[in-house]
Amino acid sequence: MGADNYAELCIAVTGLNANDNPGPGLAVIRSLKAAFGDGVKIIGLSYDSLEPGIYLRELVSKTYRLPYPTEGKTALLDRLTTIHQQEKISVIIPNLDSELFNFIKIAPALQQMGIASFLPSHHQLALRDKINLRDFGDKNGLHVPADYKLYSADDLKAAANEFGFPIVVKGKFYEAYVVYTMDQAVKAFHQLNTTWGIPVIAQQYVKGTEVNIAALGDGTGNNLSVVGMRKLYITDKGKAWAGVTIKDDKLLELADKFAAVTAWRGGYEMEIMSTDDGRLYILEINPRFPAWLFLATAAGQNQPGALVKLALGESVDKMTDYEAGKLFVRYSWDHIADIADFHQISAFGQL
Questions:
Q1: Which of 50, 192, 195, 249 is the most exposed place for a label (fewest CB within 10 A)?
Q2: 303 SS3 class
């Protein structure tokens, strides 16, 4: 596909959930339409029949349900083969941590079918895993809060003795809670264990200002885009519900160091605590675009558009500037759909 010929682009996107713990899918889709025009064909890939993106027809042309990641790579490849026969997908952009292992496994097979992607390797994925993050930081001279792997509620006693309260209790894929008592810690452990499994992570609480980085690595040790955001409003799950773009050379240096030591390939997000003494503590490194990504696009750096071009084998120039002071405010909206659509996606797996 030539650099100026995107008329027949068909891009499949996951992460269509938009609840209080939103997925990145809708932000990615809005960015793709900003990059390639409203005519670009977007295929939604969902896991649940009530993911809001399914019913947003102005954003998603058609949606197909995927097997859950626990069903394995063969089930995923079989389903995507069927979808590709119908839609002729050009590029696929997975946006959920829990699905990436399978997508990386089948990426060569998808490429053989004509479906391009731009994903990290399993080695890169493991380097920044919450279980390995502290070791990764120590090895590379990065500040990472101390953590404790929790395999039972009894392990919380050791974590509390080591860190004191408050403690941050995290699921291995998503969600984080700041807890101030043992009762709160036990409740958070059981909730996260039920949802995401073990280990649950207890992390030392670091006081400061929460900032995030959205970035795109080229796979050779460089970033093609880095945008910083300061959280202005945070939900009880630790998600940004409002934020503003900021510029800080230290954030750029941190992202560039991460890209250099990992040769990261694809989009990623760094969640950071900036302390009063100027240190940047890495709380998490998420191996995909963040849910607030459209803020980066609005500020002048369209990372999903660039990723599609990279997936298609095209060269992309480094993006070096964006607008500071660009604000996003997330909001709830009652979207009205027909129950027949819900029945269609539930019964037949497509809409």
A1: 249
A2: helix
